[in-house]
Input
Amino acid sequence: MIWNETMECMDREEMRKLQSIRLRRVVEHAYHNSPFYRKKMQELGVVPEDIQSIDDITKLPFTVKQDLRDNYPFGLLAVPMSEIVRLHASSGTTGKPIVVGYTRRDLGIWAECVSRVLTAGGITKNDSVQVSYGYGLFTGGLGVHDGVQNIGGTVIPMSSGNTQKQIQLMHDFGAKALACTPSYALYLAETIHNSGIPLEEFQLRAGFFGAEPWTENMRKELEEKMHIKAYDIYGLTEISGPGVGGECECQNGTHLWEDHFFPEIVDPKTLQPVAPGETGELVFTTLTKEGMPMLRYRTRDLTHLIYEKCECGRTAVRMGRIMGRSDDMLIIRGVNVFPSQVESIILELPEFEAHYLIVVDRVNNTDTFQIQVEVRPEYYSDEMNKMLALKKKITDRIQSVIGLKPDIRIVEPRSIERSMGKAKHVIDNRKLV
Ligand code: ADP
Ligand code: ZN
Output
């Protein structure tokens, strides 16, 4: 099912024309109503008239998270405060929070985008969706909430936490879909399993998981554990929130709603566009945002774009899985390590759960690379040699894929702290010295 066929399936040439018109408009708006952007453009010697088509986007300045911090709280708003109807702030996984403001129209467009994602995942007005993303300043809860209401579905505004009650109400209310982080979904799946309520008594058939990187193996795991289809939903506070893009039934890339958010991929070092299809840093320009337009915002997310038409019929560009954030990449003894690589390997091995913690430190000027990982109850044993064999298996596997020998600590089932929001998978103690 398609929510907005005109926009989601538009001919690519037509889309570029629309993007060009909208880019001109947003650049005018930013230049005239945001002192921040006027200054940035003046520094580059660019005036709005220089931007005639979407191809001119590379003339525009980049925006980074630090710009939002430097202008805390309201310095980047481009409308008077009287036009702002809601504020959100980022969850601050990477430092001091940043603040964004939305006009009424911005909220409408955000709800439209989430509606596209829910519809692509088969949700209609007849379905109820349990929203277990945190409500509040974090965009996850209210963002998905508005999307469910916009399609006329029934929203169950659970927020995160209170895991036993989540399960009870999901069961009693017959929720058709669950929206939360993939790590919380895994925790909920375990809790369902331990509750003794048969899975068949739940009506859950879809999950909309995002707000943190996850892997194909994690998808398989969640689909098997909950008998659902697990869809990716992607977004970030600076651009609006969840629903900047989402997966369709093909589950083969995350469609980005490029009539509202224009994506580019650049080399994070040179900031030059990469060749089509190559991996680099994702950059967004908001094409319709009033409250806080963003020109060439550097997400730090590493991915690639797929421009071929999808089998679902949509032409909207697709994004490959986020490999991690360029600022999340660990460099351990000179080797680039992405937590997602570790997750993927752990999930390929049947003996382990997707609960893990990477601990990096520096001892005697050498980086240490420890991975704590939970063994599944059925593989847990008191016998030392069995555990040693398991340890060797995962050590060898990680060393062969990543090229670095990890110090594996196999820990007891259920001993790694469960996350209700974005999971913390890395502790890097090197930053402290
Ligand atoms: P913070 O920067 O504080 O984490 P946000 O809550 O706005 O703020 O998080 C946005 C970031 O979360 C994205 O830039 C991306 O790194 C990550 N993210 C969101 N959705 C997904 C997803 N579906 N897959 C991978 N990463 C995601
Ligand atoms: Zn598709």
In short: Residues 248, 250, 255, 310, 312, 314 surround zinc ion (ligand 2) (CB under 6 Å).
